[in-house]
Amino acid sequence: MAFSSRFSFWEQKVKTEEQIAAEQAWYGSEKVWLVHKDGFSLATVLKTEAGSLPEGKVKIRLEHDGTVLDVDEDDIEKANPPSFDRCEDLATLLYLNESSVMHSLRQRYGGNLIHTHAGPNMVIINPISAPSMYSEKVMHMFKGCRREDTAPHIYAVAQSAYRNLLTTRQDQSIVLLGKSGSGKTTNCQHLVHYLVSIAGSTGKIFTAEKWQAVYTVLEAFGNSATSMNTNASRFSQIVSLDFDQTGQVASASIQTMLLEKLRVVKRPEAECTFNVFYFMMAGADNTLRTELHLNHFAENSAFGIVPQTKPEDKQRSSQQFTKLQAAMKVLGISSDEQKALWLILGAIYHLGAAGATKAEADEAGRKQFARHEWAQKAAYLLGCTLEELSSSIFKHQSKGTLQRSTSFRQGPDDVGTGDNSAPKITALECLEAMAAGLYSEIFTLVISLVNRALKSSQHSLCSLLIVDTPGFQNPKLAKRDRGATFEELCHNYAQERLQTLFHERTFVQELERYKEENIELALDDIDSSTSLSVAAIDQASTQAWVRTLARTDEARGLLWLMEEEALQPGGSEETLLERLFSYYSPAEGESKGPALLLKSEKTHHFLLGHSHGTDWVEYDARGWLSHAKQNPASQNAAILLQDSQKKNISGLFMGRSGGATVLSGSIAGLEGGSQLALRRATSMRKTFTTGMAAVKKKSLCIQIKLQVDALLDTVRRSRVHFVHCLVPKAEVLTGDVKVKTETHGESCDTGLMQLDVCLLRAQLRGSKLLDALRIYRQGYPDNLVFSEFRRRFDVLTPHLTKKHGRNYIVTDERRAVEELLESLELEKSSYHMGLSRVFFRAGVLAKLEEQRDIQTRRNITLFQAACRGYLARQAFKKRKIQDLAIRCIQKNIKKNRGVKGWPWWKLFTTVRPLIEVQLTEEQIRGKDEEIQQLKLRLEKVEKERNELRLNSDRLESKITELSSELADERNTGESASQLLESETSERLRLEKEMKDLQTKFDTMKKQMESMEMEVMEARLIHASELNGEMDDDDTGGEWRLKFERAIREIEFTKKRLQQEFDDKLEVEQQNKRQLERKLTDLQADNEEVQRVAQQLKKKCQRLTAELQDTKLHLEGQQSRNHDLEKKQRKFDSEQTQAQEEVQRERSQRDKLSREKDMLTGEVFSLRQQLEDKDLEICAVNLKLEQMEAELQDLNSQESKDEASLAKVKKQIRDLEAKVKDQEEELDEQAGTIQMLEQAKLRLEMEMERLRQTHSKEIESKDDEVEEIRQSCSKKLKQMEVQLEEEYEDKQKVLRERRDLEAKLMSAQEQVSHRDVETEKRLRKDLKRTKALLADAQIMLDHLKNNAPSKREIAQLKNQLEESEFTCAAAVKAKKSMEVEIEDLHVQMDDISKSKQALEEQLSRLQREKNDLQSRMEEDQEDMNELMKKHKAAVAQSSQNLAQISDLQAQLEEAMKEKQDVQEKLTALQSQLEFQEQSMVDKSLVSRQEAKIRELETKLEFEKTQVKRLESLVARLKENLEKLTEERDQRSASENREKEQNKRLLRQIRDIKEEMAELAKKEAEASRKKHELEMDIESLEAANQSLQADLKLAFKRIGDLQAAIEDEMESDDNEDLINSLQDMVTKYQKRKNKIEGASDTDSEVEDRVDGVKSWLSKNKGSAKNLSDDGSLKSSSPPSSRRRFCLDRSDEEEEEEIEEGSTGRSSYRSRYKRSSSSYMNNSDGEAKLSETTT
Fold first, then answer.
1. Is 1330 in contact with 1359 (CB distance < 8 Å)?
2. Which three-class secondary structure state does DSSP give residue 523?
3. Which residues partner with 76 through β-bridges?
4. What is the DSSP letter of 539?
5. How crowded is the C-beta side of 637, counted as CA atoms within 13 Å?
6. Can you tell me the distance from the alpha carbon of 516 to that of 772, in angstroms, rounded to the nearest whole number?
7. Residue 126 phi, psi dihedral angles, 5° rounding
8. Which uninterrupted H or E stretch holds 1203?
9. Of 453, 1026, 1217, 1232, most Cβ neighbours within 10 A?
10. 3-state DSSP call for residue 1223?
11. Is the pTM of this model over 0.85?
């Protein structure tokens, strides 16, 4: 049915005109889906005028009743054309939205098409009844097909996974997702059935019958009837199929986990226990009933296990029990093993019937069975006594298991007190734990027996895993008014983790791969976050390593909180839920949108949102902490079974006790003989023994997380294929299924409304299928590595293979792939080149695979044709050999018949065997001995090989065991080391906290001591006040007044602070009320904004989706147009080929007509030749008649005499001798002619070869010369450009050099000129200053009682210091400028030398360039001459060849003439013989002699011709030798030219290096020049500052002169003298420190001496002056007084301008001198201020 629908779908692609018109009408009327709470309805958008409707509203008309409505734009979704109603792949929909997807699923489901492709995934809707689409015929229809060639089916998923496994040799896995009751287990069975049937197995070990038996056993022991499914799986399983190299099933195994073992003892209301109990109670025969003591059933059971009451249920269960026994027999489970299973199941039933005492008896300490007779039956069936059974259940003192299990989780101090602090365990709980433990052991044993039947020792290559877990379970969906249990939470958690895996593989990894490969995709509307409900269950804390019982505030999941609360003494479900809500529940007033955990109205209930918040499940947490507590009775169950007295029970469980690991009780079915099974077991063990798992592996709650982690780790190592199973409607879950056939208002098929649209929408949203489809459509789902793509699809481009060759090594894979894609002519938008992979749109790679298959089939067909042709030719050769052999045999038989009767042959045949008998016997004996030796050797080798095989098997088993043990030990060691590290870090943290606390304690202790001292002092003071010991003196009264005042101030401050606080509190309360009002307003606004934003986001997502759909549709149209263009190009090329063939046929027809005309002309000419031959024959006949007449005449002359006859004979003999000589000469001439012909042929061949080689060499030489000419011209151009650049650089450098020299000369002249002028001006300043000081001294002498003011004296002192240091700086600047000028001169000399060297090199390069040009011209002339000679030689050789051909023709003619002469000679000889017998006439003889002479002359002429030819050949040889010599000379000259070019290139490279060095030097010189310019600028700035200082000094001197003329106070004279004396001593000290002053500083010293003399005169003695300062002035006061102070301002400005350019010291030196000068002046100014 699926294939017929697919074929009809493909037939619909060829559309009729009516269909095209209907589609055009559909597109013309805009069809949409109106989304409402009950589903969706088809409608048409009506066009309205602008402004007639509010914004965001549209007018639509419903299709089923014609109602016109105004709806929001967000409530409508675009509809697809009717051709997409039953599309096989949802990714091909034109408009991808929820309504369109659900409509397609509903249409297909109504047509009994339950399978639908959803991109790379499969969607399966569980049918109401089992459809007939899983037959063997349908299996073989899918065998070997690709996914693109098959209809949607569960077999297509299996075939796709199997095909990928064979092609990639990578592990595959198929994960089934969906709700409970969606058909996951059934589809798992179909997958296994298909793979086993199609792949097959070696020896047919794995058959469909065996797998059916496996699932029968699993359904009996692991399934039960629930409120949502009548046959629900209560465990998770991984079916592993291991395949060998040939693709057959080599081994298989089943791993199970998360068994709901507590269902044996307690379960939700109206639900059943496991099926096997009902099967056993209904189907056991009388013997088995007697053995199990089931002849009478108990009236009630503590476990609720009661037999069925309905007869039809009993009959069905009896049939199932018979089927179960048959299945066990197929799986190789013996009767004893089956009996052991029935005994344990019967014991569990009897334990439930026995019951336990109630809570009152437990408190009294009497835990025991309620009905001992049923307990005795249970003990008998288990093979133990009642006391042993009771102690194992109630007393908990078996093997110390409790201590081992609890000591790890408790602290070191709580080992002994763990039982006392924990809550008491009731007797019923102990009994339930024992029953659950027994059933868990039974289930693990059953899985081990099943794996034993599926185990194989064959070598396996890769595996295919099928994951089946219980689906999402929500009691509300099944209309049950109860909360979900803890077991249902575990199953929902496992499904949630698998959904997270789907999300990770579909979204996260794809987006990360696009990001890594630099592929940008606009996928903003796709949510890439996983479900948050997983974190609420299993989120671990950072302190999971530390064994602590303290509650922390860090968020943890429900499983971790359950473990902590179970260990806490006061832990309960209320505290558990409170902590859970504090971590994950939203705050008050928040909506449940972002949070996925909410409080329920019922107590001990909470709501958890699964599937991204689309499925809210209410859980009942009552009694959940008991799941986290270890009950010793469940652990004693295994010990009880191992110690059983029944051999069949103890034998089964003792064999398993040795292999018990940390996984016991968690994961079953890790047994297996294949390497892949061992690898999977090792990985699962590693999950339980590494990291946090090693710490928490004993915890019952954390084991749930570890089991799911192990499941996901196993699946993640493979390529995953996802199958989404959907529930059609809620009635299917409850079992109330009624087939509805009524039709809806819309035109739908029968039964379409069996789907619950709301439920289907919730499932689609929870699985994120639409987002997955969108990223599949918009992205690039198929990708291949560059090398893999090129290797796989290189067969599609044979022209590239021919172009590069078979052994072509690809260096750039990306470029090769781009070239391959260009040759494939793919649409640009259909692929994208990443960094290491090439990505394709959906379906493009499938098309390429199809083209590859077609090309491969074509190539294989051609190969087969070639092979068949070769085999046919070999068969024909064999037939020919056989024919030859047959002929040989026939010939031998004929010969044998001829000699058969010969006596000697008979004797030979008789004797021959007797001779060989002895030899044959000896050979036979030797061969027999060799055969015996070989047999012995073979037996020995076989024995050794068997021993080695056994040893290798044994060693391999040991290696696997040791490797597993080593892995366990390594993992244990790693976990212990990690635990040690965590404890070490915790210890360090505690030590650090201890140190901090100790320091705090010390500080607090010190504070306490100080406070105690203060308290003691206060107490003493108070006691002294009370006892009156304190004196009432003034001091005490003062302290009391202060104390009272302080108290009043404190009270006043308190009142003031209280008032301020009240005021602030009132203000803050008003602000708070205002803020609350604002907050409420803002919250309302925020909610409104969020609502609008949510609407806009939905609208944006809808518009983005529509835009992406439109883009994809556009890309599809473009790809279709591209295909049409390719077809058009192909058609055009075929048309041009056909036209060319027609033109070629026409030309051939014309050619044939011309040939026909030529043949008719030839026939006509042949006819004429025939007529001519007839005439010649007539003429020959006439000549013959004449000859006969002559012969008769000769015969008549017989009567002549003997003398004439003798004479004639003599002449004949002479002629014969001459003829012989001539013949010998002719033979010699013929030999020489033949030799000459051979030599001529050799010469022609040699000439041709030489001509070809010469032409090739000339062509190659021409190419080389052309290349050399081009390269030389390029190099010359480059050298010219370089020379021009160098010349320009040289000119630039020369210009810069000239500018620099001019600047240096001008600077030098200015410096020298300005230095002289500055010295003169400074000397004048010094003289004027000295005169001024002398005048001041004279005036002070006259005015003894009057003294100048301190301010003026300080100004004078500053002026003096400034002038002194200005002079010193000028002198130093002069010296530094001289040094710099010398350095510049040296640098300019170096630059000039380098420029000269550069000019010499440039001139040398110019000369070499001219030489090279001249050589090139000479080479060109030589080349032209050589070409002329070559042309002349070619012309000469052509003339020689023409002459040789003429000579050859002459030789041929000579040969013909020679043959004619020989013929004539033979004729003459015959005539001479005839004439010897008869008389011959002399005239005939003379005529013959004349002919002979003529022949001799011809021979001489031929000899001369031969000599001429020999000379010609010699001349040609000489020409050839000359040509070869010229060629050698030319090659030698070319080699010399190449060497010369290489030498020139080296010289050019050296010159470039030298030029680079010169450029560096020039850059250095320019840098130094720039530095000098900067220094000059700095000196000019310093000069300007000095000029300003000088102006200020002149102004101060004028002020001083004016001040001296005024009145001076006598009281400050002494202070002035002291300040001047201090200034002089400071100057003297500075002078002693700085000894580098030159001789030109004498004027400054003279000025200081003047000041000293003036001071000595005023004080009357010179004692206060130092010895070094007692110098005399060099100029008398009269000369100083003669200094003119009345200069004009113009003269001063001229002197300043002349001295402004005379500073040439560095900026740094000036700064140092000026800074020291300013510091000194500032210090002295301060001193003067203090003195004033």
1. no
2. coil
3. 34
4. P
5. 24
6. 20
7. -65, 120
8. helix 1202-1342
9. 453
10. helix
11. no
State yes or no: pLDDT of 6 exceeds 60: no
Sign, CA torsion 1709/1711/1713/1714: positive
Q: Which two tokens stand for residue 925?
A: 């004996």
Query: What tokens does 1070 get?
Result: 């008003």
Name the helix (H) or strand (E) containing 255.
strand 249-257
Query: What pLDDT digit, counting tens, does each position of 669-692 carry?
Result: 566 555 555 556 555 555 555 544
Task: Specify the pLDDT at position 801.
Answer: 74
Return the HEC string of 330-373: HCCCCHHHHHHHHHHHHHHHHHHHHCECCHHHHHCCCCCECCHH
In the structure, how many helices (H) and strands (E) does the chain have? 44, 21
Measured distance CA(1055)–CA(1052) in Å, rounded: 5
CA distance 921 to 902: 30
Q: What amino acid occupies position 1343?
A: L
DSSP assigned state of 506: I
- Count of beta carbons in the 10 Å neighbourhood of residue 1176: 10
Within 13 Å of residue 688, how many CA atoms lie on the same side as its CB? 23
d(CA 352, CA 350) in angstroms, rounded, equals 5
Distances (CA, A) of 838 to 173, 765, 799, 808, 813: 25, 32, 22, 21, 11
d(CA 1686, CA 816): 98
Could you tell me the strand order of the sheet in which 615-620 lies? 597-599, 605-610, 615-620
Residue-by-residue DSSP string for 261-299: GGGGT---TT---BHHHHHHHHH--HHHHHHHT-SS--S
For the ranges 531-545, 716-730, 912-926, the maximum mean pLDDT occurs at: 716-730
Residue 46 has phi, psi (to 5 degrees) of: -95, 140
| b/e burial code for range 1427-1455 (CB count within 10 A of at least 16 → b) | eeebeebeeebeebbeebeebbeebeebe
Q: Residue 982 and residue 1183: Cα distance in Å, rounded?
A: 137
Give CA–CA dist 1513/1509, Å, rounded.
6
Q: Where are the beta strands (DSSP E) in 826-900?
A: 831-833, 837-840
- Report which of 332, 379, 386 is spatially closest to residue 646, judged by C-alpha positions: 379
Element at 846 (helix H, strand E): helix 844-899
* Among the listed residues 892, 877, 434, 857, the one whose alpha carbon sits nearest the alpha carbon of residue 631: 434
d(CA 73, CA 94): 20
pLDDT in tens, 1373-1386: 667 777 777 777 77
The SS3 call for residue 928 is: helix
The string of pLDDT tens digits covering residues 245-296 is 888 898 888 989 889 888 888 888 878 899 999 999 998 898 998 898 888 8
Report the alpha-carbon distance of residue 1619 to residue 1361 in Å, rounded: 13
Share of the chain above pLDDT 70, in %: 74
d(CA 507, CA 501): 10
1416 closest CA partner among 1262, 1271, 1259? 1271
Place of tokens 């005529």: 1487
Dihedral of CA atoms 1044, 1050, 1052, 1057 in degrees, nearest 10, equals 180
**Other Cβ atoms closer than 10 A to 672:** 24
Alpha-carbon distance values, 611 to 180, 182, 760, 890 (Å) = 14, 16, 13, 92
The yes-or-no verdict on residue 1676 having pLDDT over 80 is no
Q: Output the CA angle 672-675-681, nearest 5 degrees.
A: 55
Contacts of 865 by beta carbon, 8 Å cutoff, 6+ apart = none
DSSP H or E segment with residue 254: strand 249-257
Q: Is the dihedral of CA 849, 855, 861, 866 positive or negative?
A: negative
> First CA to last CA across the chain, in angstroms?
124
Among candidates 1543, 885, 1571, which has minimal Cα distance to 1275?
A: 1543
Residue 38 CA from chain centroid, whole number: 47
Residue 402 has a pLDDT of 34
Please, which residues bridge with residue 121 across strands? 118
State the Cα–Cα distance between residues 1703 and 1711, nearest whole angstrom.
13
